[in-house]
């Protein structure tokens, strides 16, 4: 399955990852991340060129509970609204058309916008099983033209097993119209985390972290994270999906200010940065490409995030 399709499922699952964490109040995050110019690697022969691109992104996400009650198992029964938006700006320079794949003859995008608003419902169906329902609508565009093709509908139902306070696994169908007609993809939610001074956390599909809690207000973590963006675009007058993927690794201090605010700067490196495209046809889902996706050399990664919970 190609990378764009994988990331499309992540669009749903990343929202589910946030949704599966029940919140008793308004919570959110504002994040800026930056990748400086790095060299473009020509996919035809894996040659590093003199062309280069950077990546700058602003993200905001928040959740507002509409109704919260505790059930007979002392677990939350929750209805809430979830919203997230990402805007990325990219600069591309020194590119030769002959070095670009045919899908990118017009060059790499200079802007990407992803917005999504959804409703979630979380409830227990037994002492150790929970049911999560999600439905959302979003706009995913390269800002060249915004029309109905940029609107994607997504939703899902996950059955989540809480094996113990540290380990949870959820599976279920997720629905998307990313390929023009509604289709069902498998959804997976996984969260495994420990507590204590030395702790770790593995969350699918977000990534992993290991940290040391030095005090109640300061935690130092080493993280590996997967993120990306997607957009509807036109290739040869046909509606296609463009995906941007990046994997980063770095150090992340976590600093708490009182009960409600947390600051998380991150410094590290990009392990992977690449673009991919997929025609919006169901038959394209499992189609393998003849050449690799265009990618970029490893470089510095920096970010800062402010989180809140009331």
Features:
310 residues, mainly beta, 14-stranded antiparallel barrel, 1 helix, globular
Overall mean pLDDT score? 87
What shape does the CA trace take? Answer: globular
Q: Give unreliable regions as ranges.
A: none
For the largest sheet, list the strands in their spatial order.
Answer: 1-2-3-5-6-7-8-9-10-11-12-13-14-16
| Contiguous helical run count | 1
Distance between the termini: 41 Å
User: In terms of structural class, how would the helical and strand content be classed?
Assistant: mainly beta
Quantity of strands, as a count: 16
Beta fraction: over 45%
Helix content: under 10%
Q: Evaluate the radius of gyration.
A: 20 Å
Order of helices and strands: HEEEEEEEEEEEEEEEE
Biggest beta sheet summary: 14 strands, antiparallel, barrel
């Amino acid at each position: 399955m190609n990378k764009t399709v994988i990331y499309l499922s992540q669009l749903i699952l990343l929202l589910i990852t946030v949704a599966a964490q029940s919140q008793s109040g308004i919570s959110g995050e504002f994040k800026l991340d930056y990748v400086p110019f790095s060299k473009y690697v020509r996919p035809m022969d894996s040659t590093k060129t003199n062309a280069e691109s950077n990546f700058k992104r602003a993200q905001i996400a928040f959740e507002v509970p509409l109704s919260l009650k505790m059930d007979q198992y002392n677990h939350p029964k929750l209805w809430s609204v979830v919203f997230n938006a990402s805007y990325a700006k990219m600069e591309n320079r020194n590119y030769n058309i002959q070095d670009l794949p045919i899908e990118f003859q017009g060059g790499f995008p200079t802007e990407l916008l992803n917005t999504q608003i959804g409703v979630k419902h979380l409830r227990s169906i037994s002492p150790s099983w929970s049911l999560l329902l999600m439905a959302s609508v979003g706009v995913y565009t390269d800002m060249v033209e915004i029309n109905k093709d940029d609107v994607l509908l997504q939703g899902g139902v996950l059955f989540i097993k809480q094996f113990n306070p540290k380990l949870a696994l959820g599976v279920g169908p997720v629905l998307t119209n990313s390929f023009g007609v509604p289709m069902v993809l498998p959804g997976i939610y996984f969260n495994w985390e420990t507590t204590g001074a030395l702790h770790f956390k593995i969350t699918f599909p977000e990534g992993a972290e290991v940290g040391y809690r030095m005090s109640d207000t300061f935690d130092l973590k080493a993280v590996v994270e997967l993120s990306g963006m997607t957009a509807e675009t036109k290739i040869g007058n046909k509606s296609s999906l463009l995906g941007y993927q990046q994997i980063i690794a770095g150090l992340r201090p976590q600093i708490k200010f009182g009960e409600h605010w947390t600051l998380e700067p991150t410094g590290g490196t990009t392990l992977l940065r690449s673009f991919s495209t997929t025609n919006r046809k169901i038959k394209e889902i499992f189609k393998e490409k003849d050449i690799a996706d265009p990618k970029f050399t490893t470089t510095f990664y920096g970010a800062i995030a402010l989180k809140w919970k009331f």
